[in-house]
């Protein structure tokens, strides 16, 4: 009954096996092995578009260096107030870009409010050298709140980006969960919508360590080889990432894992829904779920061995006296048994939760 | 017959197996798992000293953040002219520290000349705010030239560091090879000598990706948690590094691998020694070997399937017209058969090269 | 009738004269002249406290380097949403500190709301390495809105700073105008209140170029000599600043200029107050005045030769259709004649506006 | 008898007078006044070329931001080992550019050796992402050693820059002294030779504070407005620099001052030449003179009131036991009387030293 986070899980067996398979033999280091090249080709196929792919060590690196690639002196990036790049990266985007400021945009359900976004971009664009200048818009999909931007919602943000000639970056730390949620193709979620750069996260979805920056807009990648090396993000034995991604992409493993995680998240939601003492916050659309509960219920769940995080209330809406927000995340390692176990703790039984 | 580099090899089978073993189950992310804690304890035991250990993604990250941890405004680090931090890290130390300048020190055999080192440190320390100030001395052991500082040579540099109240950093990208070469303990190579911070590299010695910064002088690590996260170097599933190091340290695998690599390097050297058309540059003491040869011999070896790098001559001494420097590196994956194969290409046979 | 800004004025005649006086003769450069030392002593006397004073080129430099001096990796500074360091410095604080993030705090009248401030500081302090950490609180006094924090308002913010062990920085770009407004001493406005570092601005108040960082908390200045030089902010002929400040401090010239500017600002306000088509925004307390007017009135004033800035509405409250915010700033160079001239344009006459 | 440095002098009377003249009246701040525009035009006339001019606070800022303007990730600049940007700027170029490394080039007489320069540029250009990449060549003229590159010497360096497609930067902290020394026009010293960016220093030559970056290659200035503001180098009352430069350029005051300084430096040299106990180091060509003397002579001169700096020997050639290098600098404020005074101390009389 561990819902701590999708990075509390280890690696999917097929991914671990691939690492063992590729452990033998010699190959060029620093991203120049045949396997590295093959994975880039597979990504092109998966996204139905030419692209440049760069492995980095962490999602924070992917986001920060993606934004660094489009930064300019005085540059300002626009992102939702709760975006990972603002709240959870310890200043890495400012640090690695050497200055970038991230302008927080309000919005319900973890999604940027269009009017607020336009207003802030306009204000900065209109001001002079003192105020800096817009350089990018960044969206997280799925969002930090477990919701997912629909394709038309992305279109609306993309239109603002295009109007102001700004590249559009997507933080896809849980990209596969978003795809499955929207039942769309990788292409439809990204470059069809005008996304220029994607932080393509695979770690949370069953890899040990596999994060990449994908440039659909290849000229933006011009300096990235140097940016990555200079930021100490160029793995020597880079095929250890490629080996993971080979298994990840093979037979749609990535989508199957995400379907599994999303499905179990929905089932967990149905359990909370059925429990009158629990209130689900926002509309879960991927593999994250935020629930308001009484402190004593949270204590009880933990005593029973349910692992989840108590979340800062900020922006989570009306949390009453004696209440707490719990975050639950599912992953490839989550089992139907674990989900049913939560139901058991709450005295709730829901049909249709399958599997072990 | 691949001697391209020790990072052309993949992962040692025991290390790959450990990753598979630890792929299952849940554990706290971001360096807070039980396994992460256990590995830190094992490192304390291996080094016979209390220490703080931080995993990072690359050796460049280890070096750059170690130096950032001791940096100050106007800071200058002193290192050998051929040091990895000067020649091979694309400016990462300057970038990640936000300014550090690295003052190159001359010296034979890849080792800093003591008089030159003292003279430069004195000059900077004596000057005022315009000239900056000394903040650290960094040595690479084994050096970039394949030589190894003896314990007394480290003592002499350490004495200068202590005299000027400078922390001493050691870039140990091939640390195990150095230990085996000097037949000394980890403690004797490091804090016994006054080394404050070690970049502890395991990737080149059989891991997929395992680099750590070890602080024997723990107060210097005060801000490192933030430095690492801010530099996008904090792995979420950090136990994938711990799992590698568990196997690495177990039953002295790391030392056994290094003994293997060093031994095969010596045997390769004996082959080149026996070939009058080849001149070994510097005294190989670990698992790297630099050889001056005629261009036609280099071409022939490559045609025969021997993989090695043609090295820039800079600092490699007298390279004649029509000659080239070849670098050969051995690793856990190097075989006696491969070494004998080089002998075969050169028509040289040497006794005592064992194993497959 | 020029109210463009207090930096549209040149230099006060006494300040220009002092520069001429000190143009002759030789003196040590880089802040080490006798005159530089004498001015530091005069500042100690004026502030009734020991302090370290450092000249820099601009107010942006003073603010950014003051914050850099107290920065740490992952550091977050708290400041009002409209603070100069957020809105008007093109990212200089992030850039010069190498990462600092500035967390915007809401609040009426250009002043931080105490509850909002405490809530944000608490949130960041409670979170872990991912969220960074609080490193300073910065207030602007007078504020960007032309209001002035009272002594007790500063006390309340200072209490939060002390509670969280954060240094308190004051951006005093118009410091003298604030003093005169509150009718208090330099000491009472600063270290009496717990202010640790002051950006002491004199340029806007009649100097050509005279900005200093004053550390009442001297240990915080430990690295500042290097910070300043490294940021290219160490003037060689530093006595050209000292010469200005000599005249500035002599016979309270600085306070007399501020009294003049504040008085004329009040008189200008009384004119706008008397004009029913104009609405004064916020309560002017120093030498800046924000007025909502109809676009046609703004056009008319400009045609008549009144110079002022059309200000972005953001945060300025309810600006109706066809209305605009005008910002008017007075300085040593503003004359009663100029102020009366504005009254003339508006058909308003107010008694008690003296002087030329 | 003050030869401490040309920044120990204050301001030339004509420059001080111009500041007083322009102290009155209102003008747009931040470089947008009519006077600012007029000075840019005068610089175009003086240099016989279109250009973009940006005032900054210090020579260090001019150099560091000029190089930042042409920097790229992994960027390496090539400069003489004794260049101000390496030895005297406390890491400002690395800091303000966010990473730049400066590769020191050897060379006699303070001038880069062509072969050494080419060899280093070639080495870096040939290496891959690990080694970074060349981004600029920077020369100082007059050099830090008081010598001056001839026009053909600049041509030779410029040819290497062009061959490798690198912009050529000139640190002209004492630019006027160099012009007068070579008896050439500003154009001939700069863009005729292929210089793309000039740090145009006027402070040392009689101004209080007047440094500018001049881009002859205007596309390189594209981001400079933002670079300057972000680096806290945009003066609000920028016309205080323009006012100085107005007087500086008027009736060739700048060249007359430089002629005066250079002439007195030659005369001082003739005194040292006539004194057998003194050895002039390098060939003084501008207004700096390095002299090897016995410590007791240095002591005696200081007792007699001669002010000069004892210079670090590094690179100054053979300094014997009991000897010291003295640096003497002349300026607009140096008098014939002062120079004759040195002769008096040494018991040397030389004809032809005129003026007070």
Question: What is the H-and-E element order of chain A?
Answer: HHEHEHHEHEHEHHEEHHHEEHEEH
CATH fold node name of the largest domain in chain A: Aspartate Aminotransferase, domain 2
List unreliable stretches of 5+ residues of chain A. Answer: none
Largest sheet of chain A: 7 strands, mixed
Number of helices of chain A: 14
Count of strand segments of chain A: 11
Instruction: Kindly report the spatial arrangement of strands forming the biggest sheet of chain A.
Output: 1-7-6-5-4-2-3
If you compute it from the alpha carbons, what radius of gyration of chain A comes out, rounded to the nearest whole angstrom?
21 Å
End-to-end gap of chain A: 12 Å
Strand content bin of chain A: 15-25%
Query: Shape of chain A, please?
Result: globular
- Integer tally of domains of chain A: 2
CATH superfamily of the largest domain in chain A: Type I PLP-dependent aspartate aminotransferase-like (Major domain)
Structural class of chain A: alpha/beta
Mind explaining what this structure looks like?
The structure is a homotetramer of 356-residue chains. With 356 residues, chain A is an alpha/beta fold. Chain A folds into two domains: 240 residues, Type I PLP-dependent aspartate aminotransferase-like (Major domain) (Aspartate Aminotransferase, domain 2), CATH 3.40.640.10; 93 residues, Aspartate Aminotransferase, domain 1 (Alpha-Beta Complex). Chain A is 40% helix and 17% strand. The first copy, chain A, contains 14 helices and eleven strands. In chain A, strands 1-7-6-5-4-2-3 form a seven-stranded mixed β-sheet, sandwiched between helices. In chain A, strand 4, helix 7 and strand 5 form a beta-alpha-beta unit. Chain A is globular. Chains B and D meet through strand 3 of B and strand 3 of D.
């Amino acid at each position: 009954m561990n819902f701590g986070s999708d990075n509390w899980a280890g690696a999917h067996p097929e991914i671990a096996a691939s690492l063992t398979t590729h452990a033998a033999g010699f190959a060029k280091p620093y991203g120049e092995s045949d396997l590295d090249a093959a994975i880039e080709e597979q990504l092109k196929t998966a996204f139905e578009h030419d692209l440049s792919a760069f492995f980095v060590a962490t999602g924070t690196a992917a986001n920060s260096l993606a934004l660094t690639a489009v930064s300019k002196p005085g540059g300002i990036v626009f992102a939702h107030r709760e975006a990972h790049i603002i709240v959870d990266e310890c200043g890495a985007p400012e640090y690695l870009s050497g200055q970038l400021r991230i302008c927080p945009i309000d919005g319900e359900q973890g999604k940027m409010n269009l009017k607020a976004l336009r207003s802030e971009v306009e204000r900065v664009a209109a001001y002079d050298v003192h105020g800096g200048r817009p350089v990018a818009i960044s969206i997280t999909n799925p969002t930090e709140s477990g919701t997912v931007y629909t394709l038309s919602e992305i279109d609306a943000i993309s239109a603002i980006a295009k109007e102001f000639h700004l590249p559009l970056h997507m933080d896809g730390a849980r990209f596969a969960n978003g795809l499955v949620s929207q039942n769309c193709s990788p292409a439809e979620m990204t470059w069809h919508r005008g996304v220029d750069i994607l932080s393509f996260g695979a770690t949370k979805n069953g890899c040990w360590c596999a994060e990449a920056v994908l440039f659909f807009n290849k000229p933006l990648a011009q300096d990235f080889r140097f940016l990555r090396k200079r930021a100490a993000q160029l793995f020597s034995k880079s095929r250890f990432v490629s080996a993971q991604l080979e298994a990840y992409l093979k037979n749609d493993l990535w989508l199957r894992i995400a379907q599994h995680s999303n499905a179990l998240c929905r089932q967990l939601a149905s359990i909370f829904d059925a429990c009158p003492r629990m209130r689900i916050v926002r509309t879960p659309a991927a593999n994250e779920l935020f629930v308001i509960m009484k402190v004593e219920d949270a204590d009880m769940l933990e005593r029973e061995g349910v692992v989840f995080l108590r979340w800062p209330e900020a922006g989570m809406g009306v949390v009453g006296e004696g209440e707490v927000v719990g975050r639950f995340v599912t992953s490839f390692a989550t089992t139907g048994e674990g989900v049913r176990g939560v139901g058991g703790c709450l005295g709730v039984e829901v049909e249709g939760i399958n599997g072990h």
